[in-house]
Design goal:
mainly alpha, Growth Hormone, Chain: A, 21 helices
Length: 418
């Protein structure tokens, strides 16, 4: 892998290893600030809406000023907001800060995806994205676990440690980029930067925006559908398993542990093995596995059977999201990778806002069989949409990388000198 992939790996690992405030936000609001559960839920929605607004803004900015610049700004601002939140005791202020938190924190998503796909060759992209997801999942296996112990001591301490980890990740990113520049000054200096005549020419050849790209829009809709299905792991799934199937909450924890272990152990080799697969085949397979994994929850009862469904949707997750990111990189015209990644990230944020709410509301109103049948149908529609819109063969980007790959991040030694 290129050095930039490992720089992003280290940054993501440090950042996610300290991510503990969001999983405990509802408990912080209800038990520490003594607000109602309904208001606490609104704060979570405020975070998701902030992220949904940030993605289409941060993506184009990654093209203009450089993905690493946006990543660093996101990490620093996230750290500052997290350190301020414990100082607020009025719910309206906390909700506004939570919205701002979601905005600045989720700005890192399109920038990270843009940096990874620009750094890696088309053949390496799926594995490079899987490497970053490995860092995220390793970090997420640490942060919430530590957060559980810190919550017993002090809820505000969660925000202090989380904010400190964001600032620490920004320092790691800055230090490693400077080390990389000293080690490879010639290769970095030789790369074109966004805003140069070559890049401006490339953007003139592809006018308009991603939201008017007839090749991208149907795919983005398919990704939204499969993401809404996947988001049931935070919505209807735990509620159904504990409330309706009468399993213990510890069993839900075990389900997520299996999900994380499978990702850590198999996602990178799986995507290395699939690097030559056509995007369409991989994405349709991933969408189908996700649909079957969640849809089957409605017809199984025992612990082993439910665990098997987790395996299905985990493999779907490990295929769909790395391959989907690689495909978006191939769709993006030169110099506009960040813009397309911003639109792609917006679909995740929209699914996070709608998916868990829709799943839990359907479970209460229509019952389990109708809910999981609907989830399965949604996944099937996603597979059909993706199958009908994604090119069967590898596109121009992979046959001719120089024509489609966006320039390397502008945060170079020359840019710093300017």
């Amino acid at each position: 892998m290129p050095a930039d992939v490992w720089i992003i790996f280290a940054t993501s690992l440090v950042n996610r290893a300290g991510m503990m405030a969001l999983p405990f936000l509802v408990l912080y609001l209800t038990q520490y600030l003594h607000v109602s559960a309904r208001l606490a839920g609104l704060a979570i929605s405020a975070y998701g809406i902030g992220g949904m607004i940030a993605a289409p803004i941060a993506g184009p900015w990654s093209d203009r000023v450089g993905a690493f610049t946006v990543m660093r700004a996101s990490l620093v601002l996230t750290g500052i907001v997290l350190l301020i939140i414990p100082l607020a005791h009025n719910f309206a202020v906390v909700a506004a800060l939570t919205f701002l938190w979601g905005f600045v924190a989720d700005a890192i998503r399109p920038a990270t995806m843009s940096a990874i796909t620009n750094a890696a060759s088309p053949e390496q992209r799926k594995a490079a994205i899987a490497v970053n997801r490995l860092a995220v999942n390793l970090g997420m296996s640490i942060g919430p676990a530590i957060g559980g112990f810190l919550a017993v001591v002090s809820f505000p301490l969660l925000f202090v440690v989380d904010g400190g980890s964001s600032l620490g990740a920004a320092l790691v990113l800055t230090a490693l980029l400077r080390f990389r520049r000293r080690a490879e000054p010639a290769s970095v200096g030789a790369q074109p930067r966004p805003g140069t005549p070559a890049t401006s020419h490339a953007m003139r050849e592809h006018p308009g925006s991603v939201w008017r790209d007839h090749a991208a829009l149907p795919f983005l809709f398919g990704i939204f559908l499969v993401s809404a299905v996947f988001m049931q792991n935070e919505g209807a799934l735990p509620l159904y398993v504990v409330r309706d199937l009468h399993h213990r909450a510890s069993f839900v924890g075990m389900m997520f542990m299996i999900n994380t272990l499978l990702i850590v152990l198999t996602e990178v080799p799986l995507n290395l093995a699939m690097h030559a697969w056509p995007h369409r085949r991989a994405l349709v397979l991933g969408a189908l596995l996700t649909a079957v994994g969640f849809g089957a929850v409605g017809v199984v009862r025992g612990t082993f059977a439910i665990t098997l469904t987790v395996v299905f949707w985990t493999f779907g997750e490990m295929i769909v999201f790395p391959v989907g990111t690689a495909y978006v990189a191939d769709l993006a015209p030169a110099g506009r990778t960040g813009e397309y990644m911003g639109a792609y990230s917006t679909m995740f944020s929209l699914a996070m806002v709608i998916g868990p709410w829709a799943g839990t509301a359907a479970l209460d109103r229509f019952g389990s069989l109708a809910t999981w049948t609907g989830v399965f149908a949604c996944g099937l529609v996603a597979a059909v949409v993706i199958g009908l819109t994604v090119e069967r063969k590898r596109g121009t980007a992979e046959n001719s990388p120089s024509e489609r790959r966006a320039p390397v991040d502008s945060d170079s030694a020359a840019a710093l000198a300017e």
